[in-house]
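B., you asked whether I could sanity-check this one before it goes into the benchmark set. Here's the sequence:
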Amino acid sequence: MRITLYSVGGLDEIRPLAALGHALQQQGHSVLLCIPEKFRERIMKRNLRMISCGASFEEFLEGKTGTSDSEFLRKLTAEVPVHFVSLRDALREADLLIGGLLPLAAPSMAEQLSLPYIQIITSPIFLDASQFPAAGIAKQNGFLASLEQKKRARQWNQQLRTAINRERGFSGLSPVKGLYSYLFEYGFQLIAVEPEVMQQSKFENAATTGFWFTDEEFPEEKEWQEFFAIESPVAFVGSVNQPEELQQALLSEGFRVLFSADWKDHPAMKADAKIYTGENQVPSECSVVVHNGNTGITAATIRSGVPHVVVPEMMTQTDWAHRVEQLRVGISTSADMKSAAQAAKKVGADTGFKDRALEISRKITARSSLATSLEIIERLAGLK
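And here's what the prediction gave me:
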């Protein structure tokens, strides 16, 4: 079967999509990724083919923590023609289309070509707002979440709908009225999130599989064996807005600090910063992980069995912070790095967080999430 995987997302969305692509290829399927150009090197390492679809939404947000929905959608609108052209090229011989985050052109192209379409959900925030809080709502509140989602839908309809309907017209398709619901509810939804995190979903046209990771071994270099053999607590630092300030605050609280592999070559890193070599991995020897609630680091931390301190800043991060607290595997705190370090000390010393995190980790590692996903995909494609 010839399968095209498409996403406008950032690294947290491309990683699970690449893991799925690799698994599909191992099953004998022909796989082509249509994703932002900035991820070409990562994809080539996995011997996967790709075609560029322009910029990632991450590039619209770089250096702009407070970017408004309106500004974000304005930039996204300018990319719409590029995505329709790129995805059309990527689907010339496809039998199945699988779309990830922000599927600008995917539902329309699947509709035009009569292709079976599966949408990948890596964050519950894009699902039913009455069950799951929207970005910016820290606590579960179905009414407020529904209002927030309706507001977002109006913005998408006002700013993005014209551009997408123009491209649909060029493809001989009729215009859509409710763009937001069309983009995020079209096709079968494959939810790459753990059931414990999801709680529930009202959607019948969906399946929850669990997080997707590539089965890479953790680094076993002597350096890491010696590092973790030292009897003093280690705070693992994922994505945060002020890494230097956080490092100093954690050191003041008695932690040794280990940065995730994503910090490699980052201009904010000093020469003496300790950076882990395992990509998208959290070593279980750590006492606590401090991160901003991005999807990838949250999933990796939940999988590792290490408690969290989440410092959310924007978009899906607030939602993930809330879920971490609901799971009782960590806490959410303000963006003040001193407060985050104090929270890390509290969480690291609380065995209740560690016990709960390990309990959920064991359930996750016992599942075969990718294998389950492959079975569902092949069944939907009529191969089983």
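One thing to flag: The longest strand covers residues 30-35. Otherwise nothing jumped out at me.
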